[in-house]
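Data deposition worksheet. Section B asks for the primary sequence of the deposited chain exactly as it was used as input, without tags or linkers unless they were present during the calculation. Section C holds the resulting structure in token form. Section D is free text for depositor observations; keep each observation to a single sentence. Incomplete worksheets are returned to the depositor.
Section A, Depositor: J.P.
Section B:
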Amino acid sequence: VVDMDESPSHALRNKKDSSMRVAINLVKSGDVAACVSAGNTGALMATAKFVLKTLPGISRPAICTALPALGGHTHILDLGANIDSSAEQLRQFAVMGSALVSAVDGVASPRVGVLNVGSEAMKGSPVVKEADALLADSRLNYVGFVEGDDIYGDKVDVVVCDGFVGNVSLKTSEGLAKMISAYIKEGFMRNPLTRLAGLIALPVLKSFRRRIDPRRYNGASLLGLNGIVIKSHGGADQLSYANAIKIARLEVQQTIPRRIHDQLVKELG
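Section C:
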């Protein structure tokens, strides 16, 4: 068993018979179509990359998930696999994200944006500016720089960033959702009148809770590999894990690795 606090390198060298390694080996051999794991994220990524290898044209895999948004949901990558990313790697993330959304959501030309501190061209680090130039010259439906609030709006389908920024954005959104839910509950439980108001508003509240329920968005894709691997939250309940399995099944049906490869061929000529 790979411990949750075990380093990826140690797990790779010393846990060759772990359930995680066995599952990924089965993906490689073709005995199973996908692997879904709630284990150590770093070890899962390292093992998957070592065993399955990356697709041609992909230098590093990326972690991608969907977040609730006004337009339905927005996919964001990377979420922590790569703390530092080059402009070329951000371009690769954009290609992978676009191919994924096109396949699983049926969007013919997904809108892609690079997460930045502002939408103006003069803002941002040299890396994001270079990525902006690369994507502006690509065949993707690139809409330019986007800001944090655009993740939850209806402006973009795919948000691209390095793993540090993506992971912070994800954890912030999870914390915000918990805070909003707690405040709403506290407000309606304040006195008999607010409890009555809560009962009247219950259908709306249930719908709202369902739309932002993180369990319904559980399951992050490890994109860029010669195989399908899905990371589930370590504390996932039945509903959460079922959603991760659902994502894996959909990616198998849509042959995501092949679609990413085909999109890369178009981009690279």
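Section D:
The first strand starts at residue 34 and ends at 37.
The chain has a mean pLDDT of 91.
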